[in-house]
Amino acid sequence: MATSQVTPMTPSDTGDGFQDRGQITFSVNYPAHAPRVDSPLFIKTKKLLNTASGGKCFICGRTAKETKVPHEAHHHPIMYSMMVVVDWTIFAVEAQRGDYGPGPQKFSWANFDPKNPMTFVDDMRYNGILLCKDHHTGPNMGVHVLPWPLFIAQKYAKAGYKFSDSEIIVHSTST
Ligand SMILES: [Zn+2]
Ligand SMILES: [Zn+2]
């Protein structure tokens, strides 16, 4: 039984700057699915994603050399754990239309078999973004931690903005 309780992000946003301590509470149901293991396709295409991204984090642009921790490939937009509930007929149309960005749009949907969705889900060239460890799972920073509106703000915010007690926005341009 699915329930969802999400506290409004900015219950009293008067326009003054303020610190949101994120009292988000929610309860959603993950469908039963096979435990995740790194498939050969994932391992291979993670490397290709890394190359195509110039080794840069999707959010901050830093390389693993700069962060000193290996970057990670994040399944996006289809979560591995939600794969079994995807309506592929709907998704394929939306993806080809560009609703989910250039990655899913470029996938070869004509050859897709919904009975074997891993060919898309685990292909990081089309269903993946490269993230530094911080922007993957880091406190106050990660895509698995922050709501999407706050997560993506780290990508477009001006450098130097104090986003949180642990992060000042940077956009690395080093190669
Ligand atoms: Zn990053
Ligand atoms: Zn992830």
What is the fold's blueprint, element by element?
Elements (H helix, E strand, L loop, with lengths): L39 H13 L11 H4 L4 E4 L12 H10 L4 H5 L11 H4 L6 E4 L1 H5 L10 H9 L5 E3 L2 E2 L7
Antiparallel strand pairs: 1-2, 3-4
The chain binds zinc ion (ZN) (2 copies).
Helix content: 25-40%
> In what order do the strands lie side by side in the largest sheet?
1-2
Portion in strands = 5-15%
Number of helical segments with 4 or more residues: 7
Largest sheet: 2 strands, antiparallel
| β-strand number | 4
Tell me the number of structural domains.
1
Secondary-structure element order, N to C: HHEHHHEHHEE
**Helix/strand class:** alpha+beta
Structure report:
The chain is an alpha+beta fold and 175 residues long. It has one domain (40-168). It is built from 7 helices and 4 strands; from the N terminus they run ααβαααβααββ. It has helices spanning 40-52, 64-67, 88-97, 102-106, 118-121, 133-137, 148-156, and strands at residues 72-75, 128-131, 162-164, 167-168. The strands form 2 sheets. Strands 1-2 form a two-stranded antiparallel sheet. A two-stranded antiparallel sheet has the order 3-4. Residues 1-8 have low confidence and may be disordered. One zinc ion is lined by residues 57, 59-60, 62, 131-132, 134-135.
